Amino acid sequence: MVVTAIEPRRKGWSAVYIDGEFALNLDTQTLLENRFDVGREIDDEDLRDILALSNERRAKEKALWLISYRDHSKKELQEKIQRTCDPDAAAEAVARMEELGLVNDERFARQYARKLLLEKRMARRAAVFELTRKGIDRATAEAVLEEIDVDPRENIRAVLDKKYRSLQDEKTKRRAVAALQRLGYGWDDIRAVLEEYD
Exposed (0-12), middle (13-18) or buried (19+): which is 154, by Cβ within 10 Å? Predict the structure, then answer.
């Protein structure tokens, strides 16, 4: 097999043509670094190697791009990278980011827990569920949430004051109770706060 053409594409990709036919898109930088030029004779092993290198580079670039916007858990980051790269390259990129200290599940859990409890006004039970959904183990999630001192009834009051100014009619009360239950609050806390509003 002979590389007959390499054409630049958008976003750092290049189309590689082998024996006159389009074969695949590869990362342009990887092609340059490995001297993958027109006229080069290659075999299946060379093609697999350059494809693996291209995938690794793209996965690392995607990981850096994602964590430049906000912190991610390892699981969340790997799932997002896997949308555009193969699973092995995604796992390797996440491991590299963790090695560099750019991804840390405990740090992510602390930041996200504060957001869930103090901004979104969730109950601890719902916050544990959200953290485990993001890939944080249950023990870490519970430990991190214990560090944050939040009164559930204060949070319920904050939600009611922000979204439900008038709790006079029964329909609005039911909607408020349903919303608070979705946020993970138990009936005892909800009822106690609603009695204050009556």
Answer: exposed
Q: Name the CATH topology of 3-99.
A: Arc Repressor Mutant, subunit A (1.10.10)
Q: Provide the whole-model pTM.
A: 0.76
Pick from 126, 63, 137: which is nearest to 93 by CA? 63
Q: What is the pLDDT of residues 92-142, one digit of tens each?
A: 999 999 999 999 999 999 999 999 998 999 999 999 999 999 999 999 999
Which residues in the chain land under pLDDT 50?
none
Give me the amino acid identity at 90.
A
Q: What are 104's two structure tokens?
A: 């840390």
CA distance 184 to 190: 10
Structure tokens at 74: 């390892």
The continuous run of DSSP H or E covering 154 comes out as helix 152-163
Q: Give the H/E segment covering residue 15.
A: strand 13-18
Query: What confidence score (pLDDT) does residue 166 get?
Result: 74
Distance CA 6, CA 13 (A): 10
Give the max Cα distance, the chain: 83
